[in-house]
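Translate sequence into structure tokens.
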Amino acid sequence: MRIQDYLTFFRWKNIVLIILIQVSTKYLFFKNFDLSTILSPINFALLVLATIAITIAGYIINDIKDVSTDLVNAPHRVLVTKKISAKKANQLYVIINSIGLLLAFYLSYIIDKNSFFAIFLIASLLLYSYSNKLKRMFLIGNLAVSFLIFLCVLLVPIFDIVPVTNQFNRSNQVEVFRIIFIIAILAFWINLIREIVKDIEDLEGDQRTGAHTLAVKLGVVKTKNILLILLSLFIIFLLALLYRFYNDIQHLTILIYVSLTCILPSILVFIKLKKAKQKEDFTIISQYLKAIMLLGILTLCIY
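Result follows.
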């Protein structure tokens, strides 16, 4: 394969997104607080690499297991069997996944929190299970991949501030963790909506391969209604959050930013979702939701 094919295979845009989230958290958001942290620049870089490696391995195993469905839903994006053999793809999966787990084990040892290795191990097993079985199960696959997004947002505070939290700095450390935890919940929520939208988008291929997704089991109309409810609740939760914590002049920048990048686009998506009928409509909505998630997480940059 060409370098361009490998970049596509590894979902380079999503990898850049992960790097942006984690670097912004460490070097922009944390700088606004008098925090105790443990990760040196080198060890932080290893944390990012471990996250990227496990993520790429997840994409590879998903492509290996999903060839038949992808040939129906997106034949132009199929690389396994067309440009890379299944055997070589499996070898890449084992190597990259092992690198990610080894880096995670090393980091857990360095910060004296060996149990934290379980986070990466669970993520790796969940990605493998998702590709093999969970993604074809009713709602379970959607929840699983959204949970992994939730974990990705929380990894930096878990590895960087939790190990050095004590009775003297607990209040400040917990406040920072709480803010990132709320953002992680919102990322989970909007990604869950996006995953269900993608189920509608991939309905034809999922029906042919016997998947039991929300769209297959309930149909497009009922699935759209569920999406509209989830999106409405997401918008209401955001409005309540802004009213509760960020409704004064001190937080005016955050108020304006979240309104312009999350609330208004979510309302636009709601309108588009009500009108959506063709596969192309849901593809566009999926891209909008991805942009909302990215811009929402980047609230950390301007906090």
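Note: Residues 3-302 form one domain.
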